Amino acid sequence: MKDHEKEFLAQYRPEDFPRPSVAVDVVVLTVQDGKLRVLLVARKEHPFKGKWALPGGFLRVGKSSRDQGEDLDAAAARELEEETGLSPSQVFVEQLAAFGRANRDPRMRVVTIAYFALVRPDLLALVRPGGDASRVKWTAVDEALDPKNDHERLAFDHADIVRAARARVIERLETSPIAKNLVPEPFTIPELRATFETVSGKKLDRGNFRRKFAQLVERGVVERAPGKRATASKPAAVYRFRDATR
Amino acid sequence: MKDHEKEFLAQYRPEDFPRPSVAVDVVVLTVQDGKLRVLLVARKEHPFKGKWALPGGFLRVGKSSRDQGEDLDAAAARELEEETGLSPSQVFVEQLAAFGRANRDPRMRVVTIAYFALVRPDLLALVRPGGDASRVKWTAVDEALDPKNDHERLAFDHADIVRAARARVIERLETSPIAKNLVPEPFTIPELRATFETVSGKKLDRGNFRRKFAQLVERGVVERAPGKRATASKPAAVYRFRDATR
DNA sequence: TAAATAGTGTCTATAAGACATTATCTC
DNA sequence: GAGATAATGTCTTATAGACACTATTTA
């Protein structure tokens, strides 16, 4: 029985069927200057040469059935690190969805597995774009998706992917503590509220937000940090997410 | 400029890089006999010959850059139709996620795009399994995932995929009207409640459930249907989801 | 002291949980 | 009439929205 399987595998020829290419693209998001921003890379080659695109690349696949190459998550982490110098331990990364419309790439059939990553604003200083920095920029998501920016349209179907990522983050913001990965460490309540507002695009009541926040403290998701944040007016108390929280 | 791109595309050799295979698998779910059930197919060939697996197959990719083959959604719809005879117009289908761990298939690197589909129980009679019916069965999800059923373990990483599908459906049950695709048409309030209970695995209070349901009627999501459902005791009023609802 | 913003309190409307009561059918 | 379950009502508690008020800093 088991021998039959071995024999079968030995004779199997994957080359007999045409196969698509598989890529991994990462929507790297942060909040800066009161805007949700996405990391874009200028394409060096055709197709869409010179256009802005998401960082990404082809999945590395081994050549034998033994060595089958890197996992999808590893590929996403690798692309992120190559393009930003940030390791997955510092950054929240999660799979978004697969995008595989025929003709989304004029070269050939490409199915891309899209991921999104959240970079805390206080880590932005550590970002070292791989290659030359002029090729990389943080663009406001609203701008990147603005249909009036016709001359700066994103390459491929990357606008769709960014839209999906934003929708996913907004959804998760209310049901999970991913906000941790979008506020500086430590942070003040008004800062956290501002982050929610810029990501969701909605104004939030100060008092009501504090009340919700108080629940997070009670549940031990978040805790006071020493010191205060100096501002132009009354300084604010600072907090931090407790470990083992995402 | 544009000419450069044409030239580039003409010279591009996708064959130069090793590529994974891309498959599409579908978690077809329904509720029957008070259980959430998944459609499984016995594998005819190695690997995992004779084991139960999700219906699925390889993505059809065209041979030229012009004809790039079918969309992912189309491939999922095709697999569904081949295995059940049901068309996507009768069934709710949505992408779940990509699963692409190295070595999840011993033959070669395979990345699968998993979908889930919901089949209304009153459509089960229409299901005509492609090929011989003995190869297909509706298994209770709890059973398929029971670690004690060691001898009947699902092929590949399909247990992971089924788990993810169930989690997604439970999540969506509360935030969208997908329940429409899991109750017969028309249905009674107790039937709908039972469906929620079997999918989520939680008991729900009758009175409170009715109150929630009343909101759906007010919002026009659902409406009274003529007649009543005869039961062993007091008959229940029947309802139906209004069109353009998913 | 004025301006600014952090932080608190309160009133109301809505929704959720628990559970008791009534209504209508079959046998 | 008994048993079963559909259908309704009620009491309590928790949560969300709107908004007024107090506190503490800088300039």
| Strand count of chain A | 10
Shape of chain A: globular
Tally of domains of chain A: 2
The largest sheet of chain A, given as strand count, sense and whether it forms a barrel, is:
7 strands, mixed
Oligomer classification: homodimer
Order of H and E elements of chain A: HEEEEHEEEHHEHHEE
- CA-based gyration radius of chain A: 21 Å
Q: Which fold name fills CATH's third level, the topology of the largest domain in chain A?
A: Nucleoside Triphosphate Pyrophosphohydrolase
Largest interface: A-B, 40 and 40 residues
Helix count of chain A equals 6
CATH superfamily of the largest domain in chain A: Nucleoside Triphosphate Pyrophosphohydrolase
Q: Measure the end-to-end span of chain A.
A: 46 Å
Layout of helices and strands:
The structure is a homodimer of 246-residue chains.
Chain A: H1 2-11, E1 21-32, E2 35-42, E3 52-53, E4 56-58, H2 72-84, E5 92-99, E6 110-118, E7 136-140, H3 141-145, H4 158-175, E8 187-188, H5 189-200, H6 206-218, E9 222-229, E10 236-241
The structure holds a DNA duplex (27 and 27 nucleotides).
Could you characterize what this model shows?
The structure is a homodimer of 246-residue chains. Chain A has 246 residues and is of the alpha+beta class. Chain A folds into two domains: 3-172, Nucleoside Triphosphate Pyrophosphohydrolase; 183-244, Winged helix-like DNA-binding domain superfamily/Winged helix DNA-binding domain (Arc Repressor Mutant, subunit A, Orthogonal Bundle). Chain A is 29% helix and 26% strand. Chain A contains six helices and ten strands, in the order αββββαβββααβααββ. Chain A has helices at 2-11, 72-84, 141-145, 158-175, 189-200, 206-218; strands spanning 21-32, 35-42, 52-53, 56-58, 92-99, 110-118, 136-140, 187-188, 222-229, 236-241. In chain A, strands 1, 2, 3, 4, 5, 6 and 7 form a seven-stranded mixed beta sheet that branches. In chain A, a hairpin with a 6-residue loop joins strand 9 (222-229) and strand 10 (236-241). Chain A is globular. Chain A starts with a helix and ends in a 5-residue tail after the last strand. The interface between A and B is large, with 40 and 40 residues.
